[in-house]
Design a protein that fits this description.
Rossmann fold, 9 strands, 305 residues, four-stranded parallel sheet, alpha/beta
Length: 305
Amino acid sequence: MLMKKDFLSIRDCSPEEIRRILSLAAEIKAEPGKFSKALEGKALAMLFEKPSLRTRVTFDVGIHQLGGFSVLLGPAEINLGKRESLPDVAKNLERMVQGIMVRTFGHDIVEKLAAHAKIPVINGLTDLSHPCQAIGDFQTILEVKGKLEGLKLAFVGDGNNVASSLVLAAALVGMRIAVASPPGYVLRAQVASWARERAVPGFELVVTSDPVEAVQGADVVYTDVWASMGQESEAAQRKAVFLPYQVNETLFARAKPDAIFMHCLPAHRGEEVTDAVIDSPRSVVYQEAENRLHSQKAIMVLLMK
């Protein structure tokens, strides 16, 4: 097993491990039948404190396509750390299933589960990190562009968990990345620091408040919603702050002529992105969403086999 026991953040991986996941994801996508019994009889507990379309479907379908099965546990069943302590949840599940996927709020929750569980823990999303999304994204870029190193990715919007995971992944594959955010919503300083410390040759990071500077000459333009789950009370304020960061045709035109558009979805059309961009032939958002399935199957195989 080339990976660490858990998959909590991109920073847990080495450059070689990222490449291994991407290589296996491509193989699984090309020959899914070859892996139909890879996790035969194994169970994945899926813990959801936050709802999801793509995370729920891709992990559920993915484990079944690998010959295993899933057990869904929502907030009513488990209420992490409240109804039952995190160590007790971990110690119970490790005797019943072979892997745990968690989609929650605080990153400390997945860290505590991983610290107490003897079975692999996979981060399906926390407020700090969205590593499965980044792997699916980089699989998509690799498919479309044929390489990762040397490309420029521009992320426009909140310097959130998705932006953080993209920066960390870019550092490990030698990609240039520019993150444009309004003051007060910038990329976490510790993410930028860690990325620069661990980066392989070719990595460059620009953190700016100017979306035009970020997008200029980019091979990939990426955005996310302005207000994520749990930030609904800030939605009106954020909309006013982020309006200059909308990815529209004018801003997208600053990228290379063959640049692609990406979004982790769900999208709030007319806010962070216009219909003209997300529905254009250069948008790969649905290919990107599909690749969550293949990349997460690769992660499960490497961790649970």
